[in-house]
Design goal:
By secondary structure, the chain is of the alpha+beta class. The protein folds into three domains: about 150 residues, 3-Layer(aba) Sandwich (D-Maltodextrin-Binding Protein, domain 2), CATH 3.40.190.10; about 120 residues, Dipeptide-binding Protein, Domain 1 (Dipeptide-binding Protein, domain 1, Alpha-Beta Complex); about 220 residues, Roll (Dipeptide-binding Protein, domain 3). It is built from 16 helices and 19 strands. It is globular and about 80 Å long.
């Protein structure tokens, strides 16, 4: 067994070895390689990558890698606006049912043997018809098949015109098409590799696949024929390569970043948060000369959910559920447990940064009102010692223990049960937990994505309504929002639905997360966005 004291030395050896391998990979392709090591963007993926096939881009690890290799019809900018990508423009009919996309005629797949020796071919509308329909193929079993639930037909009208017909209006559909599931893949490569396409990707993106040693390293090279340019007409990307490592330990990842072996660090871990950040969330003085800090609201709502079909009186009582929301100080929780990273959720379930968010529909710290509501519950039910059990994972144990201490002050006994993430996921889907911690990260940037958790037609396990919340007015407004073409009116419907949810209290909203990124000072052009997408095509690296 390796002793923990030996790990830093071994990781240094590991990274030195990796640098030599990567340097060799670059040198063998380009005799003039003296500048290349300064143009390699290096980051670590501690969760590993399961597939480089866009049809399986279901989490950040996969999405980030796939985003460097593939393009879709449209993409999302850092302000959550849908922008052209391979489609240069589009038209939506007045009923919101037919989407017509007009494609560029200068986008090519990466050179590959499936197109002939050292050859490529133009991307056409037929590639998108194939790629989107592939998501629903049972043989593929893509986790992104749900994206096509409201699609009636996808048809290429010509090489440059694609038509998508929906079976009902769905204003969020354009945003859904920015997801990496909807990228263009060539049928020739799928036919050639079959399931092995996961490790032999052929795309259109700013980088092309070079080498993958699973659990060790993944290398992409610059696509010399990429179709996008910057505002000055310079071809993208600027970087020569991207190198991804797979250290599973976040403390070791942080060590490599501080030693200059990684260019980028995403998110904040408890193992090093007090080292790199001050209690108020600002960058520690130790790192101010070498490190940049970026923060922005993240489309992620962290919450507790009540299983409303539970027979337990404490769960059935709206008074007690509201008492829990009033009974703890979210601002203090974020300051002590997250060094101020994250936004205390005194608003609704829809997070900050999305239209429909309301800062007034939620709950603020009010211990006296919380005590009063607990007393009302005792009087109404005759239960003198109300008790609840919150189920969580180890990662959020500190949050639940904080609530445990605070809620005991208002007269509520709280127990905390810890289980593995996979077990919790299964138990909450099958109604086996009375109260559980959860989070909802937007699949696409529209508030409908969050409100779907409360639509009665989405009861788990067949949908994301884990609380089994049911309200006739909510359901009516939810359906109405699909056919509301006026954007402002639709956002008003979203706010009304959010207010209904918060008034009935099927959840306790804890906080809205933030994207937090650390980079070295020599990294330029790395933006930040509320969906935490890593986009490297405009990134440059100086000595």
């Amino acid at each position: 067994m390796i002793k923990s004291a030996q790990k830093p030395y071994l990781y240094i050896l590991y990274f030195s070895h990796l640098s030599l391998i990567l340097f060799g990979l670059l040198a063998c392709e380009n005799p003039d390689f003296s500048h290349l090591n300064q143009s390699v963007f290096r980051y670590n993926e501690h969760k590993n990558i399961g597939s480089l096939d866009p049809a399986f881009a279901k989490d950040n690890a996969n999405i980030w890698a796939v985003n460097q290799l593939f393009n879709g019809l449209v993409e999302m900018d850092n302000s959550l606006n849908v922008k052209p990508s391979i489609a240069k423009k589009w038209h939506v009919d007045s009923l919101g049912l037919n989407y017509t996309f007009y494609l560029r005629n200068d986008v090519y797949f990466h050179k590959h043997q499936v197109f002939g020796k050292d050859s490529t071919r133009l991307v056409t509308a037929y590639d998108f018809a194939y790629s989107l329909n592939r998501l629903t193929d049972p043989k593929v079993a893509s986790p992104g098949s749900w994206v096509m639930q409201k699609v009636n037909k996808v048809e290429a009208k010509s090489d440059t015109i694609l038509n998508i017909e929906l079976n009902q209006p769905f204003p969020a559909f354009l945003g859904m098409l920015t997801m990496k599931y909807c990228s263009a893949v060539p049928k020739e490569a799928i036919d050639f590799y079959g399931s092995a396409f996961r490790s032999n990707p052929v795309g259109t993106g700013p980088f092309k696949f070079k080498r993958w040693e699973e659990n060790i390293k993944l290398v992409f090279r610059k696509n010399e024929h990429y179709f996008e340019t910057d505002t000055n007409g310079n071809q993208l990307p600027y970087l020569e390569a991207v190198a991804i490592t797979f250290l599973p330990d976040k403390q070791s990842e942080f060590l490599q970043f501080t030693q200059g072996n990684l260019d980028f660090l995403n998110a904040l871990d408890a193992s090093y948060k007090d080292d790199i950040l001050n209690p108020d969330g600002s960058l520690s003085s130790t790192y101010q000369s070498s490190t940049n800090l970026m923060r922005t609201p993240y489309l992620n709502t962290e919450y507790l959910a009540f299983y409303l079909d539970s027979e337990i009186s404490e769960i059935q009582s709206i008074s007690l559920r509201k008492a829990i929301s009033y009974g703890f100080d979210r601002h203090k929780m974020m300051l002590y447990l997250r060094n101020g990273v994250g936004i205390a959720a005194n608003g609704g379930f829809i997070p900050q940064g999305l239209p429909g968010y309301s800062s007034t529909s939620g709950y603020s710290y009010n211990p006296e009102l919380a005590k009063k509501l607990v007393q009302e519950f005792k009087t109404e039910t005759g239960i003198l010692n109300p008790s609840i059990t919150i189920t969580t994972t180890n990662n959020y144990l500190d949050f639940c223990e904080y609530m445990q201490r605070e809620l005991q002050k208002i007269g509520l006994d709280v127990k905390v049960d810890v289980m593995p993430a996979s077990a919790l996921k299964d138990a909450k889907a099958n109604g086996k937990l009375d109260i559980f911690r959860a989070s909802w990260v937007a699949d696409y940037p529209d508030a409908e994505n969050y409100l779907s958790l409360f639509y009665s037609g989405n009861f788990a396990p067949n949908g994301p309504n884990y609380a089994h919340f049911s309200n006739e007015l909510f359901d009516e407004l939810y359906q109405q929002s699909f056919s509301e073409i006026d954007v402002e009116k639709r956002y008003l419907l979203y706010s009304k639905m959010d207010s209904i949810v918060m008034a009935k209290a099927p959840v306790v909203v804890l906080f809205y997360d933030e994207v937090i990124r650390f980079t070295k000072k020599n990294i330029e052009g790395l933006g930040i966005n509320p969906i935490n997408l890593l986009d490297l095509k405009r990134v440059s690296k100086t000595p």
